[in-house]
Amino acid sequence: MKSVAEKYEWMPQTRYLGPARVLEVDAPGRRARLRLTGYPQQGSAWARIAISGHNSLNPGDLALVVGEELSDLYLIGVLNGQNPLDAPERKVALSGGAKAEAAGRPEEQTLKVFSPKQELLFEYDEKNGRARVNMEAGDLEFVTKNGSITFASSREILFHGRSIGLTSTRGVFLGVMDALGKLRSALTLQPGTAKVNSPEVGIEAQRGVFQVEHTRYTGQKLLSKIGQAKLKIDRLESTAATVIARAKNVFQTVEQLSQVRAGRMRTIVARTFQFKSNKAFVKAEEDYKIRAEKIHLG
Fold first, then answer.
1. Residue 244 included in any domain
2. Domain-terminating residue out of 103, 121, 138
3. Which of 174, 247, 278, 288 could form a disulfide with 187 if both were Cys (CB 3.0 to 4.6 A apart)?
4. 62 near 80, Cβ under 8 Å?
5. 3-state secondary structure of 67
6. Domain hosting residue 106, numbered range
7. Range in 7-11, 112-116, 126-130, 231-235 the model is least confident about
8. Percent of the chain beyond pLDDT 70?
9. How many CB atoms lie within 10 A of CB 98?
């Protein structure tokens, strides 16, 4: 590249005076990395900012640079703002090594935040409207001392991990609303209480273990289909207006007393009625009738 000194005799000591594209501005705002006009795209040089209002200097601006050596350049003016068709990376770095950078064309830019170890922490894609928090190692916490935290989405909110824990000092509430915004199903956990409220509740499992000290069931109808049931009860009391039972065979074993108290009692046997006892005693306050074609005694 021919220097300005070769073109203008009144500047014999200057190697470069011309435009340069701003690639990066350091955090203190004292230096700027430039791409000099006429130099390869990958070539860059640092220049000292020698203008006031350097806070308004942004990557992509076209600046006026002067200097005797490429290692000793001065930025002395801004020719025009950023070229929208040539949007270089914008970087902001902290003293500890963490940095943020933005790159891409307008409306297609991405914003990335890196840790001091150059691990990607946050990424925002302007074109797709997607933001992502990424932690390769370490923990991520959301903390508010005197406020609330709200996660709101018009679509799904998904939680995935090796284990997920929810704890509360007052209660946990999970609810599902219908299209009209009416609460339809809810799970409420409070200290000492767990409630489920829903039009329908279903449980499916291969095995189940239920240990409840006191149980109460209230409902209009109970339907069950069980392959085999075995109950061990110290005392069983039941009250019903009508009891209807159907079975192919009924076997009952009572070690001591079996008593039935009824206003009337009727037994209908289609074929044979057999009664066997070590001792038998039948007592009627009034009439006692036996009717049969044949009666055998003895």
1. no
2. 138
3. 174
4. yes
5. strand
6. 89-138
7. 7-11
8. 88
9. 16
Co-location of 76 and 96 in the same domain: no
Structural domains in the chain (count):
2
Put simply, whether the predicted model's pTM sits higher than 0.70 gets the answer no
Identify whether residues 108 and 39 lie together within a single domain: no
Tokens of 219: 């409902």
Tell me the torsion sign for CA atoms 51, 82, 18, 33: positive
Q: Is residue 264 part of a domain?
A: no
Q: Pairing between strand 45-49 and 72-80?
A: parallel
Asked if residue 16 and residue 47 are part of one domain, the reply reads yes
pLDDT digits (tens, 9 = 90+) for 62-91: 899 998 888 889 999 888 765 444 455 677
d(CA 25, CA 58): 7
Answer whether residue 252 is part of any domain: no
In a domain, 68, yes or no: yes
Task: Identify whether the C-beta of residue 73 lies closer than 8 Å to the C-beta of residue 48.
Answer: yes
| 22/60 same-domain check | yes
Q: Which residues fall within 8 angstroms of residue 56, CB to CB, at 6 or more apart? A: none
Bridge partner list, 134: none
Task: Return d(Cα 294, Cα 64) in angstroms, integer.
Answer: 134
Residues in the chain, how many?
Answer: 298
Which of 138, 160, 176 marks a domain boundary? 138
Residues 51 and 107 both lie in one domain: no
* pLDDT greater than 60 at residue 57: yes
Q: Which two tokens stand for residue 278?
A: 């070590």
Asked if residue 4 has pLDDT above 50, the reply is no
Confidence band, pLDDT 50/70/90 cuts, at residue 188: very high
Q: Which residues of 237-256 are buried (b: 16+ CB within 10 A; e: fewer)?
A: eeeeeeeeeeeeeeeeeeee
Buried b or exposed e, range 49-85, using 16+ CB within 10 angstroms = beeeebeebebbbbbebbbeeeeebebbebeeebeee
